[in-house]
Amino acid sequence: MLIEKFTFRDRPTNIDEEGRRKWVYAKQPHGNWNTLRTFFGWGLLLFLVVVPFIRINGYPLILLDIPDRRFIIFGAIFWAQDTFILSLLMLTFILFIILFTVTFGRVWCGWACPQTIFMEMVFRRIEFWIEGDLKSRKRLDASRWNLEKTWKKLTKHTIFLAIAIMMTNIFLMWFIGSDKWINLIKEPISEHKTGFVVMLAISGLFYWIYSWFREQICTMVCPYGRMQGVLLDQNSIVVSYDYKRGEPRGANSSGDCIDCRRCLAVCPTGIDIRNGTQFECIHCTACIDECNEVMKRTGRIPGLIRYSSAIGIEENHEAIWNARNIAYSAVLLILLGFFVYTIFTRPSIETNILRTPGLLFQENSDGTISNLYNIKIVNKTHDKHDLEIKILSHNGRIEIAGKEITLNDHDLFQSTFILYIPADQIISENTKVEFGIFEGEKLLETYKATFIYR
């Protein structure tokens, strides 16, 4: 493989020898991969905008209510009491990311990352629409300020700022819900000065990122790009240049690469994919489309740049699947299935029963021993539940304060009850007792506690 001296290994592609920013002028991509990625990207954008307005029994489809410690995921509500489940889901998600990256490289960055989606599908396309393609934008930036440059730059940055404000409000709805957001914008700004300032600050940050910082998020800030270099191996499926087929380069050489550098011109992070796998590559596939177009025009076989692995390039075969990738993909499907299973099979209620601290047992005239307990029941569904608590492990009886246990939509029931057990059934000073929470004849949950008699 031919690698230019003192290039991509010495410094980031968007920084010159003196450490100054080099602006990346990416050519507008065209091709089959770009079309597929566009449909996928716009689908994700639609999902991002629509989700806060989708309701299930009056609740958002997804809500990340951090202040109230309430998380709604596809209609299932997780509370602070679900820490174990949330931790388990987080560990599953982390393992999913690791296996996904090892198997498919940085495909998340190019296809689903919000930074890439907004940059490539929204902001950069507005830039193409207003300022034109690569040469037009270079000429415009190099020219002196005149009427054309002024109105184009003013129009572009005004639209950029408006979209940044819209983005902030969309993300806000994911955390507070669309109903609360609508109420906020109806109320005077004077009643929400702090929130309004925070909204403007975040919008300003988004505007700065997409108007100036741009690809540097991917090449210099994002930790996932750095992690990629640790996780990838020779079997990982990445966007690859077939150096065995392409070298030596040149229009009159024996290699298929004619050194047109169009793959470099179209790259949104400004790298040369022919130098090999680099952490700046976000797998956007723009270079694949551009190279395939050149191959067709020159009568060569497309696929000089393609999805492959280091092993695939070295062994000169087209297949990207091997036993390891298939096995990892199967594990990914299992993890995804576990995530979905956990969400939809979570118990509808959660019970917590503790013996009231500081109180001793009571010996009663009817030959029973009694203990006092505190009970808390959380309804994790949108349904109303009429419940009853029974003792399962012993032949005893329960007297509960308030008599009825009724929980409405995501309601919390708290009360106390007395458990009476015949003295001849108590076999130790600390006896384990088991309670059952019933809805009619259906047992919803069991809970074990301690019964004392000394």
Query: Helix proportion of residues, in percent?
Result: 40-55%
Distance between the termini: 83 Å
Outline the low-pLDDT stretches: 1-6
Would you report the number of β strands? 16
User: How much is the average pLDDT?
Assistant: 88
Major sheet characteristics: 5 strands, antiparallel
Beta-strand proportion: 15-25%
Number of helices: 15
Determine Rg (CA atoms, Å): 31 Å
What does the overall shape look like? Answer: elongated
Class derived from helix and strand content: alpha+beta
Properties at a glance:
single chain; 454 residues; alpha+beta; Immunoglobulin-like; 5-stranded antiparallel β-sheet; 4-stranded antiparallel β-sheet; disordered N terminus
Model description:
The model is unreliable at 1-6 (pLDDT under 50). Helix 4 (114-131) runs antiparallel to helix 6, helix 6 packs across helix 7 (178-186) and helix 6 crosses helix 8 (193-213). The chain has 454 residues and is α+β, with helices and mostly antiparallel strands. It is elongated, with a radius of gyration of 31 Å. Among the domains are: 32-78 and 113-214, no CATH class; 349-452, Immunoglobulin-like, CATH 2.60.40. The chain has helices spanning 32-50, 83-104, 107-111, 114-131, 134-142, 147-176, 178-186, 193-213, 216-221, 223-231, 243-246, 262-265, 286-297, 310-315, 323-344, and strands at residues 55-56, 59-60, 62-65, 70-73, 76-78, 238-241, 305-308, 349-355, 362-363, 368-379, 385-391, 397-400, 405-407, 412-422, 430-439, 442-452. The strands form 5 sheets. Strands 8, 9, 10, 12 and 14 form a 5-stranded antiparallel β-sheet that branches. It has a 4-stranded antiparallel β-sheet with strand order 13-11-15-16, with no helix packed on it. Strands 3-4-5 form a 3-stranded antiparallel β-sheet. The N and C termini lie far apart (83 Å). Strand 3 (62-65) and strand 4 form a beta hairpin. It contains 15 helices and 16 strands.
